[in-house]
Amino acid sequence: MAERAVRTRHLRRLWGLPGSLIAVTGWPAWGRRLHVPWHYWWQAHLLDCLVDAQLRSPSDERLRDISRLIDTIRLRNGRRWLNRYYDDIAWLGLALWRAGEELDIRRPEALDEIRQRLRDGWTDHGGGGIWWRTKDNLKNVPANGPAAMLFTRLGDRADRQRAMSIVDWIDEWLIDPDTGLVLDGLRVDPSGEVSGIVEWAFTYCQGVYLGACVELFLATGNQVWATLARRTVLAVAEHMVGEGGVLPGNGGGDGGLFAGILARYLAHAAIVLDDKEAAQIVYLSADSAWRNRVDLRSGPLFGPEWVMPATPGRRRPERDLSVQLSAWMLFEAAATLERNDVHPAFG
């Protein structure tokens, strides 16, 4: 139902072009049909959600839509796969990898370009890590976590070593010693010296670090990565979840995606590591989000805070594609747990 609601309210042709498919970022769609501003990384998460849905309930129509969406993202992005944000392109790379490996919809030239750009983003400034974007002074977890996951999945030995170096760099610089939560990033001077730590602990920072650790455990079998993943799950359970064990939101805009990203990788950790606590957070969050939906003719509408009733309105964050994708991602995560017979800690 969450998928159908996103399809109904957000999916459109690009500029009316036949055979194209893209999502408008707000609902109602008036004034957004030119797709300005362009939220590249939201479309990457839409692609990821469509892959989830195809694995859950295969259909020929959705397969065609996935292929159309991939090509339309490139078209809207100026016939390019890349932009200046390393986190954006890492997210698209992850979704493209899944479409290729799990659905046999392949764009090898795109993955090659993305991989090389991410390789080029690593420098020794600030002890290592990939920049958030070109010509910037921030190295952050939202860029490095997805890059580490993609490097690991691509299977090249040198890339896997890059992924290990990224996780080691995060572990050295950006783990809060008091809570175990993953902090956002480092500010780095042109000289390479660290000038400050960005101490925000966003939900999606936990998610991408957790995802990278789980991928490295899968690739190597080394228990150290499972231990780091477990530490992150415990930190989220103790210091981040709120009322009723539910993941907190982060408003609309880009923040609308944050909790859904953490839910995705909590579910991944629950399946790979048999982590009942990670599964419990996903199930409790999904149950709360569903109970607090509002039913519209176009389908269920979800709020940015899953413990609060959703409220329709043009100036509400509920209108953002990011918020609705986050809820859809959450339900797909819970459905994946169910298909894999992974149960929460409470039974």
Notable traits:
single chain; three-stranded antiparallel β-sheet; two-stranded antiparallel ribbon; 7 strands; 55% helix
Account of the protein in words:
Helix 2 (40-56) runs parallel beside helix 4. The longest helix has 19 residues, at 321-339. The chain is globular. Helix content is 55%, strand content 6%. It has helices at 2-10, 40-56, 60-76, 86-103, 108-120, 141-154, 157-173, 203-220, 223-239, 258-273, 276-291, 321-339; strands spanning 11-12, 22-23, 138-140, 185-188, 194-198, 294-296, 299-301. It is built from 12 helices and 7 strands. The two termini are 26 Å apart. It has a 3-stranded antiparallel sheet with strand order 3-4-5. A two-stranded antiparallel sheet has the order 1-2. A two-stranded antiparallel ribbon has the order 6-7. With 347 residues, the chain is mainly α.
